[in-house]
Amino acid sequence: MKIGVDIRTLMDKRYSGVSEYTYNLLKEIIRQDEKNEFLLFYNSFGDCPNIPDFQAKKVKIVRYNYPNKVLNYLFFKFFNSPKINQELGVDVFFMPHINFIGMSAGARSLITVHDLSFLRYPEFFSRRKNFWHNMIGVRKLLKKFSQIAAVSENTKRDIVELCGINPSKVKVIYSGVSEKYRKISSDQLPTVKQILKYNGLTEAEADKGKHFKAPMPYLNADGLRLKAVKNKYNLPDEFILYLGTVEPRKNLEGIIRAYNELVNSNSELRSIKLVIAGGQGWKCKPAYREWQRSAYKNDIKFLGYIEDSDKAQLYNLASVFIYPSFHEGFGFPPLEAMASGLPVVCGFSPSLSEISGSGAIMVDPYNTSEIAAGLKEVLIDGALRKKLIEQGQAWAKNFNWRKTAQKYLEIFQKININ
Prior knowledge:
Elements: E1 2-6, H1 18-32, E2 37-43, E3 59-64, H2 68-79, H3 84-88, E4 92-95, E5 109-113, H4 117-120, H5 127-136, H6 138-142, E6 147-150, H7 153-163, E7 170-172, H8 192-198, H9 203-207, H10 221-232, E8 239-243, H11 252-265, E9 273-277, H12 285-293, E10 300-304, H13 308-317, E11 320-323, H14 332-339, E12 344-347, H15 350-356, E13 360-363, H16 368-380, H17 382-396, H18 401-417
Parallel strand pairs: 1-2, 1-4, 2-3, 4-5, 5-6, 6-7, 8-9, 8-11, 9-10, 11-12, 12-13
């Protein structure tokens, strides 16, 4: 079977959300699959160095060389051309995200829907974003596909309710959490290789009697990496962490107000800081205005975009994770935090309740005092903290890319047969 995949999301310079999802899913599908051929399609008028090399003989990357606006708004939108499934000559065509596309009628096809918050809450999005979603015509687009994968039961409900799709056409396939998110230990002695690397020496140089530049801390490689990330971002010793895009749906203003209330009314928590990590999204200015208004603005730190290689360490350095989002399709950060052994305070919304299970304290995202109370409980109640860490780590193990990839391979096969 030949499987075509739209990999335009992998053109992003900085992976997050859907691009991370697409990369991790494809990497695991290609690793598991031994018999099918994959043709990965993207479009770029200029060079695109960010497309990953999956290093497999069964994978072929196909590039179209059109300006994106011409391909999307003219060819795909108005002429339904080129018909990508025919151009690639594939049996099944897979889109891991909503986008403009041209396909032949009745094409065997699958699309993943991550969330429909832009239909449910258009006020959270910029005019440009809403224009883009309106131009795609999501309701009409989804009806073109043989099958739809939803990342949660809540997203499936949105697909059925907001787009008029038959429930039998929608299959829930949960996303995975990378194995790199784990509790990191920093109290082991270093190996000889780690000591040499720390001092910038090869074994040969050490044998010749070159001196170490400095004594090495009693840390293993993980511990050294933790220290490096702490120094890189100049992180405090104790902090509440938010990680995600700075945009209205994520409720950054609510987080800052809750932090103000927490430290203002609890003298024993005055030393705790707030760290907000993540790139700027649309309509982000109100969050920064709320920060500037805070009496504790010097204790609130915005880190900006975080390199993927630093995220696991960041979770391990924090004291508690806060994520009172108003709406999510899935919600990776709370699960990543749980897998890293970090207690989580989450917004009580259908998808976050579904994904977080018993591994988090759920709070009303519209109630600042409730968010502050949830943070206080985790920070001062040692027994609750221990319970959340244990339950969170156990719960996060239910979500892995191996199982996710298996379900996609099964659905590819089913679509091809039908």
